[in-house]
Automatic annotation (TrEMBL):
Residues 40-151 form the Peptidase M16 N-terminal domain. PANTHER family: METALLOPROTEASE, PROCESSING PROTEASE. This is Putative Zn-dependent peptidase. It comes from the Bacteria. InterPro entries: Metalloenz_LuxS/M16, MPP/UQCRC_Complex, Pept_M16_N, Peptidase_M16_C. Signal peptide: none annotated. The lineage of its organism: Bacteria, Pseudomonadati, Bacteroidota, Bacteroidia, Marinilabiliales. One of its GO terms (molecular function) is metal ion binding.
Length: 425
């Protein structure tokens, strides 16, 4: 039977997925383990999560470089031996630090977990911070930082974060060149000893694994040999500056980077779901208002987007693009035009239905596979939410009206409330 390719496939409503939920275990020393068993392949991801992100660092660089140094050598293994052992078993090791958490992630076949956990144990309990590797890492990071400071998009984002949150806030990108000279190896060793221990740790498993894994984790990480003092969470509050428009001068820049935005609500707020949908219409997908106008129609940029970004302590709107410097003011004018159009005109029904289809598709994508399900749980757990959050979001996508979206645009997207930062010539 031949297929008539001139006729598009029929659209069907996308149902709500039945989500697998984790089981909670507790190791002998009190470390919580959230184990989510899903998927068909015998592969497992283990995340060792610590409250050791930027929010907790007393100096710049401590969170990210301490985390990176965990791979550089332990009491039993050199950096090369750690890398070779993971490579030999076809496993993946990643160390990351974000605003709030430092994470050591291991992805491996279930049958190899027992061979890799002793290495991770030594990384977490007995990293030696070799001076040569530390100096090399610090120098590489400094060189990368200096290169990044030549890019208008980085300069613009840095200034925007400082304008929105206030200098000194952990969410403000405050790293300076002199910060690389103001740290020493002892600072990182102290941060490691203070933050990487059982009283500041939780574990997340996702994938296919046997019950033996919990026993192995208890054997390697459930003892009293790496206890520490619980880490207190520092308190910071966003302090946006009063001046709504800033410019960062970059001599010789061909393009101008543009950032607009403002603080919005958090995930517990009743308007959260509606704002997510509204921002998607404005600039959250390829057929959004900003893309169709400023890229497709005007040709000012290769890409422009609007995102409702959710951090643990703050949510904010970010509109971002880079344009030729000659189109800078015209682009800002069109952004304002599209925001005001959302305030003055209801979203047409066909556009709203298109966005519903897009968001429900993305909603399903967020739960596609064992690791995605594990991350979906983390996205709830880290914000103190339960699974009803996803039910409510799915319902909001299906039921929100054009009138509700217009009201949200009037309430939250007043153009005179937006902060604007431009970096360029």
């Amino acid at each position: 039977m031949s297929i008539n390719r001139t006729i598009a496939p029929a659209l069907h409503p996308i149902g709500k997925p039945d989500l697998v939920r984790p089981e909670k275990h507790v190791l002998k020393n009190g470390i919580p383990v959230y184990a989510l068993k899903a998927g068909k392949q015998e592969v497992c991801k283990i995340d060792f999560v610590f409250n050791a992100g930027v929010w907790y660092q007393p100096k710049q660089l401590l969170a990210s470089l301490t985390n990176a140094m965990l791979q550089e050598g332990t009491a039993k293994y050199t950096a090369a031996e750690i890398a070779e052992l993971f490579d030999f078993h076809g496993a993946y090791l990643q160390c990351t630090a974000d605003y709030h958490y430092a994470t050591i992630s291991v992805i491996t076949l279930d049958k190899h977990i027992g061979k890799l956990l002793p290495v991770v144990e030594d990384m977490l309990k007995a990293s030696v911070f070799p001076e040569k590797e530390f100096n090399n890492l610090l120098n590489r990071r400094k060189q990368r930082f200096m290169l990044e400071m030549e890019k208008v998009k980085i300069l613009c984002q840095k200034k925007f974060s400082q304008v929105l949150f206030g200098e000194g806030h952990p969410y403000a990108l405050g790293l300076k060149a002199e910060d690389f000279e103001n740290v020493c190896l002892d600072d990182f060793v102290d941060f490691y000893n203070t933050h990487y221990h059982a009283q500041n740790c939780e574990l997340h498993l996702a994938g296919q694994f046997t019950d033996k894994v919990i026993q192995q984790l208890d054997h390697h990480f459930g003892g009293d040999d790496w206890n520490g003092t619980p880490v207190e969470t520092p308190q910071f509050h966003a302090q946006p500056q009063t001046n709504k428009r800033e410019r960062v001068h970059k001599e010789g820049a061909i393009q101008s980077a543009i950032r607009l935005g403002k603080l919005l609500v958090d995930k517990q707020h009743p308007d959260y779901f509606g704002l997510q949908i509204l921002v998607t219409i404005l600039g959250g997908y390829f057929s959004s208002r900003l893309m169709l106008n400023i890229r497709e129609d005007k040709g000012y940029t290769y890409g422009i987007g609007a995102n409702f970004i959710n951090l643990n302590r703050e949510g904010y709107l970010l509109i971002a693009t880079e344009v030729d410097k000659s189109y800078e003011e015209a682009t800002l004018k069109e952004i304002t035009f599209e925001i005001e159009r959302l305030q003055n005109e209801p979203v047409p029904q066909d556009e709203l239905e298109r966005v519903r289809q897009y968001l429900t598709g993305e909603f399903l994508r967020d739960f596609d596979g064992a690791f995605a399900l594990g991350q979906a749980f983390r996205n709830l757990h880290d914000f103190g939410l339960d699974y009803s959050f996803y039910d409510n979001y799915h319902q909001a996508i299906l039921s929100i009206t054009a009138e509700q979206l217009q009201q949200l645009a009037k309430q939250y997207l007043q153009t005179d409330s937006l902060y604007t930062v431009v970096a360029g010539q």
